[in-house]
Amino acid sequence: MKRLHRYLVRSFIGPLVLTFLIVLFIMVMQFLWKYIDDLVGKGLDFNTIGELLFYFGLSFIPMSLPLAILLASLMTFGNLGENMELTAIKSAGVSLQRFLRPLVILVIFISIAAFYFSNNILPITNLKSRALLFDIQRQRPELNIQVGQFYNGIEGYSIKIAEKNYKTNLLMNVLIYDHTEKAGNISVTYADSGYMRMTADEQNIVLTLFNGYSYTESQDGKSRRKRMKDKSYPQRKDQFQKEVIILKLTGFGLNRTDEDLFKSNYSMLNLQQLENATDSLSDILVKRKELTNNTLRKNQLFVGVQRLKKFHNDSTRKPKAKHFDTTAFAPKKILKTLNQREQESYVDRALTRARSTKSFIITSKNTILAKEKRIRRYKIEWHRKFTLSFACFIFFFIGAPLGAIIRKGGLGMPVVISILFFLFYHITSMSGEKFVRQDVLDPFTGMWISSFFLLPIGVFLTIKSTNDSAIFNIDNYLEWPKKVLARFRNMNSNSK
C-alpha cells in the first residue's frame, strides 16, 4: 500500500509543479501586458526588472495555487482512469477514499503553507512590489505627457501636445512655456510637430521641433516697471523651420520611495495588523458618530426653536401672548404675535441654520461612509487570507473525483474543465467582494460565498466517484422522467 501511495504522490507532484509554473507564468505575462506602457522605454536595468517580476510573481502565488491543484488533480486521476489503473486499484479492494488519503494529507499541508504565505510573506511582497512599481511609474517624465493636458513634471517647463502618433512618436501642436526665470509666461514656444527623446546618459530630454515660432518678453527693469503701469510688453518673435531644445532633468532617476508610506494599506498587513487596524478604525468611527450626534443636538438642531421659545417666554412679550399655553410650544402661533420685520428676521435665521445643518449632515455622512468603507476593505482582506487557502482544499475535492469520472488525461479536457470551474470561482468571489464593498453583504458572506457554492459540488462529485456513477451519461437523468411519463400513460389507459 505504501508503494501505491508513493506512486500516487509522484504522479500528482509532477503535474502540480508543471501547472503551477504555467499558471504563474500566465499571471506574470498578464501583469506585463497591463503595465507595459509604464515599463517600456524607461531605461530600467535587468536587476530592477528582475526584482519587479520576482515580487509580483510571489504576489500571484495565492491565486495560482488553487488553479494548479485543480488542474493537477484532474490530470492525475484522468490519466489513472484513462489507463484503467483506477479500475485495477478498485478491483483489488482499495476504496477511492483510502487511495486518496496521502493526497488529502498533502493538500492539507499545501493549504496550511498557502495560509502561512498569505499571512506572513504576501504582505511583504505586496509592499515591495507596489512601492517599486510606483517608483518606476514616476520615472522618465517625457513618457507621462498626456495628449491635451499640460504637463508640469519637468522643473521650470510646462508642456502640452495636441496629438501623438504612437507608431512614429511624432508629436503634433507642441506648446512649451519656459518658467526657468520664474517671472511668469515670458517665453513661449510653439511648433506644429516634433520629436522627443532621452539622451544616452538620461540626464536631458531633447526636443526636435519643426515649423514653429517662439515669443520672448524683455526682462530689463525698465520694461518690468512699464508692465506694471501701462501693460505694454516688449517682446521678440522668432520663426524657425527646425529647432532643437534641450531640457535638463534633475531627480528623475529611479528614486526609491520609503516603504513606510505604503505600510498602512490593507493588502500589506497580516492578520494581527488587520485586526488592530479594524479595531482602531471602529473606535474612531464610534467617536465620530457620537460627535456628530452631540453636535447636532447642541449646536445645529433646535437652536433656532430654542431662541424663538426664549423670545416667547421673555417678559416683554408675555402680555401679547397671554392666550398661549406656554407648556405646549407652537412656533407658528408665536410667529403670528410678531410683526413682519421680526418674522422675516427669524425666518432668515431659520433658513441659514437649516442650510448649515444640511451641509454639516452631508459632510459627516460622507466621512462616516468613507470610514465604514475602509473598515470593510480591511475585513475583506482578513477573510481573503483564509478563502484562498481553503480554495486549494475545495478544488482538490472537485478535480480528483471529476478526473476519476471523466477518465481523460493530458492537457485537453482537464484544462477546459479547470478553466470553467476557476472562472466560476473567480467571478463569484469578485461579485461577493464587490457586494461587500457596496455594503450589500456582510464580509463573511461575501468573501465565502464562492466556497459555499463549490463545497457542495466537491462533496457531490466525491460521492459519485466513490459509487462509480456515470454523471455525464444523459440516460441516467432521463430515466426518472421516462418512468413518470410511463406511469401517466398507464393511468390514462386504465381510465379509458
Write a structural description:
There is one protein chain. This protein is an alpha+beta fold and 496 residues long. Helix content is 64%, strand content 12%. It has helices at residues 2-34, 36-39, 46-59, 61-82, 85-91, 96-138, 221-230, 271-300, 303-313, 331-336, 340-406, 413-437, 443-466, 474-495; strands at residues 157-165, 170-178, 187-198, 204-217, 235-248. The chain folds into 3 domains: 2-138 and 389-477, no CATH class; 144-248, no CATH class; 272-380. A 5-stranded antiparallel beta sheet has the order 1-2-3-4-5, with no helix packed on it. Strand 3 (187-198) and strand 4 form a beta hairpin. The protein contains 14 helices and 5 strands. The longest helix has 67 residues, at 340-406. The chain starts with a helix and ends with a helix.
For the structure shown, list the relevant keywords.
496 residues, alpha+beta, 3 domains, 5 strands, 64% helix, extended
